[in-house]
Amino acid sequence: MAEQDIIRRSGTTDITPASQARVGGVKKVAKLFDATKCNGCKACQVACSEWNDLREEVGEFSGSYQNPPSLSPECWTLMKYNEIEDAGKLRWQFTHSACMHCADPACLKACSTAGAIIQRANGTVDFDSDKCIGCGYCASACPFDIPKISAKDNKAYKCTLCSDRTAVGLEPSCVKTCTTGALRYGTREDMLFYAEKRVEELKARGYKNAGLYNPEGVGGTAMMMIFHDINDPESYYMPKDPQVPMATEIRQDWLKPLGTAGLIATAAFALMHRITVGRNIVEEDQPGYIDAAAEKEEDSK
Amino acid sequence: MSKQEMIVRHKLFDRLCHWTIVVVGLVTFLTGFSFFYPSFQWLGGIVGTPQLAKVLHPFFGIAMCLLLGLLLIRYYHHNKWDKYDWPWMKAVVWVLLQKEENIPPVGHYNPGQKMLFRAFVIFVIAFIVTGVIMWQPYFAPMFEASTVNWATLIHAACAILMLIAIVVHFWMATWIEGSITGMLYGKVSKAWARKHHPAMLDDFKEEEK
Ligand code: HEM
Ligand code: SF4
Ligand code: SF4
């Protein structure tokens, strides 16, 4: 199935953009995770592994219900469990962690392979694993530490936002399964509207710092989160101010053009030099070496 | 012309080492730049597919660095700064313009070659360190993502700089006729040595004694 709704494509110049005839009526979508409703049941994590046929190995208990310990090539959605002590009471905070589907995706910017990462007109970011070479540039650039490289097939994997479901009008499998209504999916506009109402409600109930996590540093995300305390996203294992990393920007926006210019300039200079100055040949019949002193004498004659 | 006296400039081991580096380096550079320039991913086709290029690049790279390191160790004693270097360096414009009479003598290597030598030392170290840090799927997962990301930047910057250095190296090698035959077959004529590296002949005299 040819994809014709691609608004950004890794390793591709603007002169030859990806096919985008079918971006016309497409609205931006979003998944909303409401941490204030989540009860940590892990149904989403299981649904993800079910729908995508992923089976991460059963790990070992390490003092937390979080398992596996981190996202992996076989685990694209992971429930994170953070134990918080609040006024002498223990409280759990759950984070539905998966790809954030950044509007300005660092992974796509860093990718070294044409078309291995694409962004669709609906705003979601997808990996075309068949093209992927497994260099891992996406994994090191992502400010949320999401893509993981499989040692089995050298490919990068992460949440697709169920692009194979949403393409035919279904919601992502995690959203479909969520037992509490903490996960929602819809147009970005609707989700922003809903989130605003929900945050207002939380504030009215006494959660003064409740707010929406939709970080500006990456242009906003197509997975947004509602937190009890928006000033402390780290307590949900989320970065405070995620950005496209500086090293990625320097490499792609500065090193490439400047380095290429330097390379071409050097080669051009070398060629011009060869043509203008000409050959550098040794006259083999010129007097051979005697020794430095005698040679000098001879020269001065 | 058959009378021309030849002297040894590069020993057999060093010549084999050098040309192996050229072949291994060619594969390393073409595969490496296939990742840097996605539109030129076909450069990696020298080893088959882009995926194979990714798998093989680090191994060729390690081989290139180890062999280059070996060559650098073997040529270290020729590349120390000496009294001839500074006057030559000041006259480098005359060297490029081939105004022979204005060029002060130099020894086995000239300061340009010695600078290239030092650049290669830095590149070898930088490539090994950053290359291991970014090596998926073996070593990269052991490091922080931001460490890997900076390593990737430094690795790419060194690759561009080293390619520029190699363009200069190639330019000089092909310009100074007789030097490639020297690196291929080991010997240069005394007249060649006298023209390009006069003080080298003093070393040679001493060795002969
Ligand atoms: C096709 C490409 C190349 C050609 C034609 C070439 C040619 C030469 C020649 C003629 C010399 C001897 C210079 C002299 O006698 O003064 C030399 C030396 C050397 N080459 Fe190359 N070379 C090539 C590529 C490379 C590459 C890719 C590397 C390393 C990655 C390399 C590393 C060296 C080193 C380390 C020396 C010794 C220089 C010194 O100690 O200062 N060469 N090369
Ligand atoms: S969260 Fe990471 S993997 Fe997902 S779109 Fe953003 S940068 Fe890419
Ligand atoms: S691992 Fe694959 S998707 Fe990630 S940057 Fe490399 S080629 Fe692109």
What does this 3D model show about the protein?
Chain A: Its cofactor is [4Fe-4S] cluster. Chain A: This is Formate dehydrogenase iron-sulfur subunit. Chain A: Its main location: membrane. Chain A: GO terms for molecular function: 4 iron, 4 sulfur cluster binding; metal ion binding. The complex is a heterodimer of chains A (301) and B (209). Chain A has 2 domains: 6-244, Alpha-Beta Plaits (2-Layer Sandwich); 250-300, no CATH class. In chain A, 29% of the residues lie in helices and 17% in strands. Chain A is built from 8 helices and 11 strands. In chain A, strands 9-2-11-10 form a 4-stranded mixed β-sheet. A 3-stranded antiparallel β-sheet of chain A has the order 1-5-6, with no helix packed on it. Chain A is elongated. The N and C termini of chain A lie far apart (85 Å). The mean pLDDT of chain A is 93. Chain B has one domain: Up-down Bundle (Fumarate Reductase Cytochrome B subunit). Chain B contains 9 helices and 2 strands, in the order E-H-H-H-H-H-H-H-E-H-H. Chain B has a two-stranded antiparallel sheet with strand order 1-2. The mean pLDDT of chain B is 94. The chains are: A alpha+beta (301), B mainly alpha (209). At the A-B interface, helix 3 and helix 7 of A face helix 2, helix 6, helix 8 and helix 9 of B. One iron/sulfur cluster is lined by residues 99-102, 105-107, 125, 142, 144, 146-147, 158 of chain A.
